[in-house]
Each structure stands twice: as C-alpha cells, then as structure tokens.
Specification:
It is a single chain. The chain is mostly helical. The chain is about 55% helix and about 5% strand. A two-stranded antiparallel ribbon has the order 1-2. The protein is elongated.
Length: about 100
C-alpha cells in the first residue's frame, strides 16, 4: 500500500487516481463479483439473467459459465425451471 496516496486522500487532494487511468472495467468480471457476494440463490439467478441480457441481449450457457465457473449448466437449468429466462433459439436465452 502506498502511504503517500493515502496521505494525499486524507489531505483532500482531488487529483489522486482511485482507479488506474486507461484500464476499462470488465463488465463480466464486475457481474461475476456481484453474483459471488449475493447470498440468496433466487436473487443470484435473477442478477445473472438481468446482467447478461443487459450486456449481450441474448446469452448462452457458456456466458453463464463465465459468471459461475463449473456451474453454467446447473444455473441455466435453474433459471429455466424458475421461469426467469426462456429459450428464444436453440441454446439462446433471454429474460
């Protein structure tokens, strides 16, 4: 941890970068982080479906796999069973 940056923040220097400039946030990683910190499974499923639809419009099981590694098919099946998503084309889902 750089103590000089912390010192400048507490002294009110507004030019201190809180995030590295030029490095864009990865929306898939941000969604995966939010999902991993959610405790309720129903909210987690809803968050995945809404997030992927917002980012991509339609999504596949592989997209769900990127959010929850190793559990893409289980989560997709759970979202289908709870009628959170529906299949619009073969292996293409939306809300």
């Amino acid at each position: 941890m750089d103590h000089s940056i912390v010192k400048e923040v507490f002294q009110g220097n507004e030019r201190v970068p809180f995030r590295k400039e030029g490095i864009p946030d990865d929306p898939i990683k941000s969604l995966a982080y939010r999902v991993s910190h959610c405790k309720n499974i129903d909210q987690k499923l809803q968050m995945i479906a809404e997030g992927l639809c917002e980012l991509k419009g339609t999504f596949t099981e592989d997209d769900v796999e990127m959010i929850v590694p190793g559990k893409g098919s289980i989560f997709t099946e759970a979202m289908l069973n709870r009628c959170i998503i529906h299949e619009i084309r073969y292996r293409q889902y939306t809300i």
